[in-house]
Structure formats: C-alpha cells, structure tokens
Amino acid sequence: MKKITVIGSGTMGNGIAHTFAQHGFEVALVDVNPDTLAKAVQTIAGNLERQVKKGIIDDQQKTNTLKHITTFTDLKTAVVDADLVIEAATENRDIKLNLFKQLSDYCKDGTILASNTSSISITQIAAVTKNPGNVIGMHFMNPVPVMKLVEVIRGYATTDAVTQTIMDLSRQLDKDPVEVNDYPGFVANRILMPMINEAIYTLYEGVAGVEEIDTVMKLGMAHPMGPLQLADFIGLDVCLAILNVLYNGFGNPKYAPCPLLVNMVAAGHKGAKSGSGFYKYTAGSKDLVVAYKFKQK
User: Fold this and answer.
1) 285 is an active site residue
2) Given 14, 104, 118, 197, the catalytic residue
3) What is the 3-state secondary structure (H, E, C) of 84-137?
4) Is 189 a catalytic residue?
5) What mean pLDDT comes out for the span 18-27?
6) Which of 159, 194, 206, 241 is the most buried (most CB within 10 A)?
7) How many CA within 13 A on the CB side of residue 155?
8) What structural domains does the chain harbor?
9) Is 252 known to be catalytic?
C-alpha cells in the first residue's frame, strides 16, 4: 500500500493523515470545505513542529511529511487511485452510508475501505458497498500521532486477508492493533462511554461537583484525565452519539444518555471544541476552569 486517502480533515482526519505521511505514505486529504483543509494543514505543521522541538523528528522529516500530503475538495479525484480509503467524517450513520456508497462507485475493485467510526456498525456500512469483504473499521485514538492503539473492527463480511492487511499496516505506523468484532461500541467505547455517562449522572444527581468527580478518578483510579474532562476532550456531541448507538443497538436502559448530557449538547456546549463543556477552554491556556455549576433539578 502506497496511496492513502483520508476523508474528513477534522481532529481525527488530520491526525490520521499526519501519521501516514510521517511514515512515508502518499496521503490525499479530502474535505468539502477548503478553509477547513487549510486549517488542517496548519494544524499538522504545528504538531510536527512540536515533534521537532521534542526531538522526536528533525526538520527534514517535518518537511518530507508535509510534502506527502495533498489536499482535495473533490472526492472522486481523491480516491480514484487509492489503495486504502479511511473515512473520518462526522459520527453520523447516514453521512457514512452515503459516503461509502460513493466510494464503492469511485474506487478500484481492490481498494480497502475503512471507517474510523467509534461506534457505528461496520457490517451496516459494508452492506451498501459492492465489495463488503473489503470494508473494515480502523478506530484510531486521539491524538492519533501519539496514541498507540488502533481498534481493528471486522464486519460480518470482512475477509481474513483484508483484516491481516490492516493489522500489518497498523504495525507499520508503529501502532498496536487489536482485532475486535462488530458489535455496538466495539470494545473501547462499550466500556468507556457507560463510565463517562455514569460520571455525568453523578454530577446531575448532585453527588459531587465536576472537579471532585474528576479528582476521585484521577487520584483513586490512576486515570490520567478525569471522565468529565475526557468527555469534553472527546466532544460531548460525540459522546451523546455513541451512547445513542449503544442504547439503540442493545436496547438496554443502562446505556441511556444522561439528561444533563442531552441538554448540554442541545445548548451548544460540546466541550473543548466549542470552548465550553464541563470546563471552560481559552486558547493558549492550560488552566482548567469549571464551566458547569450544579443546579438543583
């Protein structure tokens, strides 16, 4: 595999593009918005500069990595010669299904189609394509250049050969791939999201405040980040979407999103990316300031 196309230039998309380009792959980064693409390249350049300052790479490696990335706004042009396409679009089932229908028409027969989805069924995504055996999940963790895990999700029809190819490819990126089967939430989010949801319920029910809940989990459970701060970092809208997938997939009320989470997302408080969630986020500041104050129901 030499030519990789990444669809979506947000946080996950630009991180995936960065990682592949840094390991010598030719990367086509696609987004419908040219301004978003320009911002993504700036983000990648800034992250590479931080790697230079930390001694992880040198200036020449930074230059070479950026040379490996080409941006596109036209999907068909970007994927026509791709060996692997990785979709990192919004965590929305309909958007993903529509994209994979198009990819099935635009790509070569042998192209592997991967989704970076954190919860949506790979089997359902594959079912809208002409070659469902070539469809697989590659769930990277944020920040992609740093985090070692790739959750490799086999759909019902995914072939052994495609699975092995993606496992091997992940290792070429210096990642540690883990193969899992296609059930709602896979492994990572099936375990993580109920914990985050329970932390939100703990806040909602007035058991403790934001900082208190996060401190208990950091100091008592050795978590590097408290669950409420982590929810902000993931995106509260993304957490809500994943919990809805779990709830609808299993039909178990233990996965029902906390009403507080639903209300916060409806009000536009989506975490770090919106500037406010359980904490407030100010550009250039590393100080955590609590944004949510408990209100008696």
Assistant:
1) no
2) 118
3) EEEECCCCCHHHHHHHHHHHHHHCCCCCEEEECCCCCCHHHHHHCCCCHHHEEE
4) yes
5) 98
6) 241
7) 27
8) 3-181 (3.40.50.720), 189-290 (1.10.1040.10)
9) no
Location of structure tokens 């200036």: 59
Choice among 104, 151, 170, 269 that is catalytic = 151
Active site residue 151: yes
Q: What integer pLDDT is reported at residue 294 of this predicted model?
A: 67
* Mean pLDDT, rounded, of the chain: 95
Average confidence (pLDDT) over 143-153:
97
Q: Checking phi first, is residue 237 left (phi over 0); if not, alpha (psi -120 to 50) or beta? A: alpha
- Per residue in 206-227, pLDDT tens? 999 999 999 999 999 999 999 9
Choosing from 47, 87, 115, 139, the catalytic residue is: 139
Of 9, 115, 121, 189, which residue is the catalytic one?
Answer: 189
What's the Cα-to-Cα distance from 171 to each of 19, 32, 164, rounded to whole Å?
Answer: 12, 30, 11
Amino acid at 210: V
In the block, tokens 């987004």 appear at 31
For the stretch 180-201, pLDDT in tens is 999 999 999 999 999 999 999 9
